[in-house]
């Protein structure tokens, strides 16, 4: 047996898999069963050290974050996540690190009843790929190309804390925070909470949805472009993490609108679904931040109706050399 | 729009997707439909520069090889491959390189009627992850834990050429070959041919199967371990690429038994299925190389019944630093 197979067997092969997993890790491929009447939603993401996370990241946080990001994509489609395939590229295998990585991975997937069904362990620069599949009732998935003029725009939870965590780590901003506040902010980056229950609750209610990974401005922009519509957003209605109250207004708005990595949902609701939305039993707060319009483009306003111009449009996936 | 999204849109978004793809690339996740009565087989692989391919690899060969390797896993399960998710990590986006990469990727998946339904483009060290899903009739998938004593052992095609290509590139071996021979050998490494049709043909016939990625000795070893059996193999019955005739016997056998990357199938067949096997209409030659036995372990013999000891057991996924 090679070190790869030994390690996979030791840390990543569990017996307690979902009932729809006929065969998990250990063969050329996993074998799974899909219930009748369900479509599948399938997403894949790769995170690379130095680009998507700092080299100093703890192994358990890396694993948690990787899985959570893909779960969030499934949540944004209204899907029930079921199976994870994952690959890890790492320079050398260290037992303590690997145990921590496995702990972080399972703590995330266990809380969503997702089974790890296969993967690959590769020698190379630290990087992780996560592929999550989920069920969604036939024809019901939430998409980003189905928003209509007149629909109201909502976001879940609050925004800006994950971007603030990055700025603090990179020492791009100084802020006097208590240890508790600092921990809370860092956790928002390291352990994003995919809005799986909300996504499923919105299946018959929302007209479109997306998760906020690259910043609200950019991600809402994807809904607008795909749907061929525009929007106006009240900047002061965008919910921000309470720690952002320590920051002067303009910077706070920038963080909330351009800062990515929060993995909250942004979704639109037709006015005739507002009663249904109000009756939803959900644990996460949601806030109406604006409205879809015929006129193309995304327009931000302050509460006094003055336009607000963003200086950054969110995460750039490729920096210029 | 960012450079990532522009590039994906330009090279990797096509309209002619399989009918079971409800929504391809461009949303948080793809949406697909699974026919009743089919299980899914799902595999994922990551290839990293310097470990799984040389930095000098052509973009189209990299893409082809990445996809072919995952298709081969589906083939080894007897699956009909349907959908590809892929991520590419690359330092900078170059249009000519990206066009070549897309050409290689589509030339592979188009020939197997597989649709690219999503992916991720990341700035980082050159690496590629491929996730392929396939259909297999409920309960019929070929596995590696189901070989029985008495079953005959087969391999498809011929072995050793891909490993020879690596040795030649790394200048670990000198061999006087014509340009045509050299090209043929290199293609075996760069453009492996997944045995998809053979895998499906074997669904009702083979008792177990695996694809040969890490070398026959190691991969047949996986069947033996998983099935709790042993085997004897006639080294001289193992089919080798004709170019290997230029190499002295011992080295030739080593290449055929330990050399990986050929992506042929190794499978076992119960004696009562031999008639069915003989009647199969398949394009690829298959050769019987040995037999499954009760006694654990893998034993190689020459035709004169003398034992043959291998000096290497195939690809080591993690080299020691």
Overview of the structural elements:
2 copies of one chain form a homodimer. Chain A is of the alpha+beta class and 321 residues long. In chain A, helix 2 (59-76) packs parallel to helix 3 and helix 4 crosses helix 5. Chain A starts with a helix and ends in a 20-residue tail after the last strand. Chain A has 9 helices and 12 strands. In chain A, 31% of the residues lie in helices and 26% in strands. Chain A has helices at 3-12, 59-76, 95-110, 161-169, 179-190, 196-201, 216-227, 249-258, 274-278; strands at residues 21-23, 30-32, 38-48, 80-90, 115-123, 127-137, 152-156, 206-211, 230-234, 265-269, 286-293, 297-301. Strand 3 of chain A pairs antiparallel with strand 2 of chain B.
Average pLDDT of chain A works out at 94
CATH topology of the largest domain in chain A: Phosphoribosyl-aminoimidazole Synthetase, Chain A, domain 2
Measured by DSSP, the beta-strand proportion of chain A falls in 25-35%
Per the principal axes of the C-alpha atoms, what is the gross shape of chain A? globular
Q: Helices and strands of chain A, in N-to-C order?
A: HEEEHEHEEEHHHEHEHEHEE
The number of distinct β-strands of chain A equals 12
Radius of gyration of chain A: 20 Å
Unreliable segments of chain A (pLDDT under 50, ≥5 consecutive)?
A: none
Strand order of the largest sheet of chain A: 8-10-7-11-9-12
Question: Could you tell me which chain pair has the largest interface and how many residues each side has?
Answer: A-B, 78 and 78 residues
